[in-house]
Amino acid sequence: MAGAVSDRAGCSSAGTVGRVTDGPWDSYDRGKLRAGWSYPVGRTIVEEAVRSARVHLLSLDFSVPAGGTEAGLLLVRAARYRDLGNTYYLARGTPGNSRCVLHIYAVPSEVRAEARAMLTTGGGLERACKWLAATDSADPTWHDKSRRWEAYLIDGGLREAEAVG
């Protein structure tokens, strides 16, 4: 894993030499919680899942959602941004930056335990990280569009959805 570098600007450039971070991501942000809200899992649990999937992220973000959706409570979003432009200006062998972002969303405190269970023992976080890892080996035409994988807490269960754009 250490020193593994992808020659494409994908997601699994884990352990890229020379990258200075304290985790398998280039940037990290943790939004301030509103009263009555909490994050279902912490940074350590997320880091373990990301490392297990051998993914390097552009960003890991803990966010407070602007509002709920009728579809349910968004717990996690894994996104891979489309390949942008040419890389003709880069020297041959220059590793590309990750295009993968992982968002963990705050939930109302009263459903934190249930949300945590869905992400950990229910496998939601692991599936999000595996989805990100799989994007690196996807067909190059698949990389032409930004894509995302999301998991929602709906009626006590975890519902997953993929979207383009």
What does this structure look like?
- The strands form two sheets. Strands 1-3-5-4-7-8 form a six-stranded mixed beta sheet. Strands 2-6 form a two-stranded antiparallel sheet.
- The protein contains three helices and eight strands.
- The N terminus is likely disordered.
- The two termini are 30 Å apart.
- With 165 residues, the protein is α/β, with parallel strands linked by helices.
Describe this structure in a few short sentences:
This protein is α/β, with parallel strands linked by helices. The chain has 3 helices and 8 strands. A hairpin with a 2-residue loop joins strand 7 and strand 8.
**Which structural class matches the secondary elements?**
alpha/beta
Individual helix count: 3
Distance between the termini: 30 Å
Q: Which sequence of strands runs across the widest sheet?
A: 1-3-5-4-7-8
| Helix/strand order | EEHEEEEHHEE
Q: Radius of gyration, rounded?
A: 16 Å
Q: Unreliable stretches, pLDDT < 50, 5 or more residues?
A: 1-9, 12-20
Approximate helicity band: 10-25%
Q: How would you sum up the global shape?
A: globular
Average pLDDT, to the nearest integer?
A: 79
The major sheet is characterized as: 6 strands, mixed
Number of E strands: 8
Task: Tell me the strand percentage band.
Answer: 25-35%
